[in-house]
TrEMBL record:
The keyword Lyase does not apply. The chain crosses the membrane at residues 79-101, 113-134, 146-177, 197-218, 230-248, 268-288, 295-316, 328-348, 360-390. GO terms for cellular component: plasma membrane. GO terms for molecular function: chromate transmembrane transporter activity. Keywords: Cell membrane, Membrane, Transmembrane, Transmembrane helix. The keyword Membrane applies. Belongs to the chromate ion transporter (CHR) (TC 2.A.51) family. It is a multi-pass membrane protein. Its main location: membrane. This is Chromate transporter. PANTHER family: CHROMATE ION TRANSPORTER (EUROFUNG).
Length: 393
């Protein structure tokens, strides 16, 4: 049994590591890669449970895609499975960004041809994932109307509160429309965590949020100040990695910890590596205090996300069976599809499809993924090589 357990945990880590090496394109693209790998290919989690988990993680502050990955790891291997899924997905980009700092190659990496090719890969991956999710989560006209509302609101009302407001309103609409809805969809996901552990994680999250700024003022120690800055950034961000980047700029550039040039170089490097955008923290920490600073920054910025997902999962299975919440979740899941479609347009489409050649290449990559069913790593490799060729065509 122990041997089977070790084998299962190793599999969780290696699958997450493969995703960590090949998942380019930001949080929305990551959800597409996860859907393809965990739901369609490996069937580690069913479609409905995946959609509910994505909805929960959109509602929580922090990096949504990383939290979804942790949640799936927990379903397979408990808390250790969640940790291994997180490490596999996160370490490749953390190591790459710390090495980038050590090499001090402050070049304009974001304009490279292969980077542009990887952005086009993200277009194909997200389009495929959104189409699949839309078919299952918005099958009727009422849910399609919620999707449309979420698309329009996300694109036309771009503020910090937009996403959370859309999710709350859609949940209310879902409750009003679907409170008597009977769902026959089978749920296979179980989160083997105790409620005591969940409560302890939420309490620790809140204690650290309050006590770190106090310790920062009392001790005046730079390491505590650094940890506090990253922890608060990770605690108070809704909407994923793209939102945390300007927050980190305000936290570290005006204070003199980081120059504007170094920040922009790191921003370009972060866009170039796979995995979560929150690993930008590893770059900033490494610039300030070498590899030790990079590791501390990574732990600090991801710790709130980890505590929140482990804190809510033990209660999630019961909550989503509640008749009131079931209706609300139907609305929220439809809204998440709308938010993903809006993010597919901006920033993914607007920053990737710049010419007819880009669109043609995206159509080829989409066909490779959706119709020929080629594995994602083939799509990524083709995208990188094709991006180089596009520079000369």
């Amino acid at each position: 049994m122990a041997q089977h357990s070790i084998k299962s945990l190793f599999e969780i880590f290696t699958v997450a590591l493969k995703l960590g090496v090949t998942s380019f394109g930001g949080p929305v693209a990551h959800l597409g890669y996860f859907h393809n790998e965990y739901v369609i290919k490996r069937k580690w989690i069913d479609e409905k449970s995946y959609a509910d988990l994505v909805a929960l993680c959109q509602f929580l502050p922090g990096p949504a895609s990383s939290q979804v990955g942790i949640g799936i790891g927990v379903t397979r291997g408990g808390i250790l499975g969640g940790i291994l899924a997180f490490l596999g997905f996160t370490l490749p980009s953390v190591i790459a960004l710390i090495l980038f700092v050590q090499l001090l190659t402050f070049s304009d990496i974001g304009s490279s041809g292969w980077i542009h090719g990887l952005k086009i890969v993200a277009v194909a991956v997200v389009a495929h994932a959104v189409m699949g999710m839309a078919q299952k989560l918005a099958p009727d006209l009422k849910r399609k109307a919620i999707v449309l509302f979420a698309i329009c609101a996300t694109l036309l009302w771009s503020t910090v509160l937009t996403q959370i407001s859309i999710i709350v309103l859609s949940g209310l609409l879902g409750y009003l429309i679907y409170k008597n809805h009977s769902d026959q969809g089978e749920e296979t996901a179980h989160f083997p965590l105790s409620k005591k552990l969940g409560l302890a994680c939420i309490i620790l999250y809140l204690i650290l949020l309050v006590i770190l700024p106090i310790l920062r003022e009392i001790t005046q120690l730079e390491w505590i100040a650094l940890f506090d800055s990253f922890y608060r950034s990770g605690s108070l961000v809704f909407g994923g990695g793209h939102v945390v980047l300007p927050l980190l700029e305000r936290e570290f550039v005006p204070t003199g910890w980081l120059s504007k040039e170094a920040f922009l170089a790191g921003y370009g490097a972060t866009q170039a590596v796979p995995g979560p955008l929150f690993t930008f923290a590893a770059y900033i920490g490494a610039v300030i205090h070498g590899w030790k600073g990079g590791m501390l920054a990574t732990i600090a910025i991801f710790l709130p996300a980890f505590l929140l997902i482990l804190g809510t999962l033990p209660f999630w299975h019961e909550l989503r069976k509640n008749p009131i919440l079931k209706g609300a979740l139907i609305g929220v899941n439809a809204a998440v599809v709308g938010i993903l479609i809006a993010a597919f347009y901006d920033p993914i489409w607007t920053s990737s499809i710049l010419t007819p050649k880009d669109f043609a290449f995206a159509a080829i990559l989409f066909s490779m993924l959706a119709f020929w069913k080629l594995p994602p790593w083939v799509i990524v490799l083709t995208g990188a090589i094709g991006g180089i060729f596009l520079e000369f065509v």
